[in-house]
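Problem 12. The chain below contains 83 residues. Write out its predicted structure in C-alpha coordinate notation.
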Amino acid sequence: MEEKYLTPQELSEAIRYSRQTLYNLINKNIFVLGEHYLKPSSHKILFVWSAVQKWLNRKVEPVATVPAKKKVAIVKVRRRIHI
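Solution.
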Protein backbone atom coordinates (compact mmCIF):
# COMPACT_ATOMS: atom_id res chain seq x y z
CA MET A 1 0.00 0.00 0.00
CA GLU A 2 1.35 3.40 -0.96
CA GLU A 3 1.88 5.97 1.79
CA LYS A 4 -0.17 9.15 1.63
CA TYR A 5 1.39 12.54 2.41
CA LEU A 6 -0.57 15.69 3.19
CA THR A 7 0.35 19.36 3.25
CA PRO A 8 -0.48 21.31 6.43
CA GLN A 9 -3.56 22.78 4.70
CA GLU A 10 -4.81 19.36 3.56
CA LEU A 11 -4.25 17.81 7.00
CA SER A 12 -5.93 20.79 8.64
CA GLU A 13 -9.05 20.23 6.55
CA ALA A 14 -8.96 16.44 7.06
CA ILE A 15 -8.74 16.43 10.87
CA ARG A 16 -10.24 19.86 11.57
CA TYR A 17 -7.23 21.23 13.44
CA SER A 18 -5.96 24.68 12.52
CA ARG A 19 -2.67 24.94 10.67
CA GLN A 20 -1.25 26.82 13.67
CA THR A 21 -2.17 23.91 15.95
CA LEU A 22 -0.29 21.54 13.64
CA TYR A 23 2.78 23.78 13.78
CA ASN A 24 2.45 23.93 17.58
CA LEU A 25 2.41 20.12 17.73
CA ILE A 26 5.63 20.09 15.72
CA ASN A 27 7.19 22.77 17.93
CA LYS A 28 6.28 20.83 21.11
CA ASN A 29 7.83 17.65 19.62
CA ILE A 30 4.51 15.84 19.75
CA PHE A 31 4.81 15.32 16.00
CA VAL A 32 8.25 13.88 15.36
CA LEU A 33 10.32 14.56 12.24
CA GLY A 34 10.67 11.34 10.26
CA GLU A 35 7.71 9.73 11.99
CA HIS A 36 4.74 12.10 11.71
CA TYR A 37 6.06 14.53 9.14
CA LEU A 38 8.82 15.01 6.58
CA LYS A 39 10.64 18.11 5.37
CA PRO A 40 11.60 17.56 1.71
CA SER A 41 12.89 21.15 1.62
CA SER A 42 13.48 23.84 4.23
CA HIS A 43 10.09 25.49 3.55
CA LYS A 44 7.90 22.45 2.89
CA ILE A 45 6.28 20.10 5.37
CA LEU A 46 4.46 16.90 4.46
CA PHE A 47 2.54 14.93 7.07
CA VAL A 48 2.49 11.12 7.01
CA TRP A 49 -1.22 10.31 7.01
CA SER A 50 -0.94 6.83 8.60
CA ALA A 51 1.20 8.17 11.49
CA VAL A 52 -1.22 11.05 12.11
CA GLN A 53 -4.16 8.63 12.12
CA LYS A 54 -2.32 6.43 14.61
CA TRP A 55 -1.67 9.50 16.80
CA LEU A 56 -5.34 10.52 16.62
CA ASN A 57 -6.49 7.01 17.62
CA ARG A 58 -4.03 6.64 20.50
CA LYS A 59 -5.35 5.69 23.89
CA VAL A 60 -5.29 8.65 26.23
CA GLU A 61 -4.76 7.87 29.89
CA PRO A 62 -7.17 9.70 32.17
CA VAL A 63 -5.58 12.35 34.32
CA ALA A 64 -5.76 11.54 38.01
CA THR A 65 -7.62 14.15 39.94
CA VAL A 66 -5.87 15.65 42.92
CA PRO A 67 -8.11 16.71 45.77
CA ALA A 68 -8.11 20.42 46.39
CA LYS A 69 -6.24 21.62 49.43
CA LYS A 70 -8.30 23.08 52.20
CA LYS A 71 -7.71 26.75 52.83
CA VAL A 72 -6.45 27.40 56.30
CA ALA A 73 -6.52 30.81 57.92
CA ILE A 74 -3.21 31.84 59.37
CA VAL A 75 -3.54 34.06 62.41
CA LYS A 76 -0.60 35.89 63.90
CA VAL A 77 -0.65 36.01 67.65
CA ARG A 78 1.28 38.75 69.42
CA ARG A 79 2.31 38.01 72.94
CA ARG A 80 3.76 40.45 75.36
CA ILE A 81 6.25 39.13 77.77
CA HIS A 82 6.21 40.83 81.16
CA ILE A 83 9.36 40.70 83.17
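Discussion. Residues 35 and 51 are 7 Å apart (CA to CA). Students who got a different answer should revisit the alignment rule from Section 12.3.
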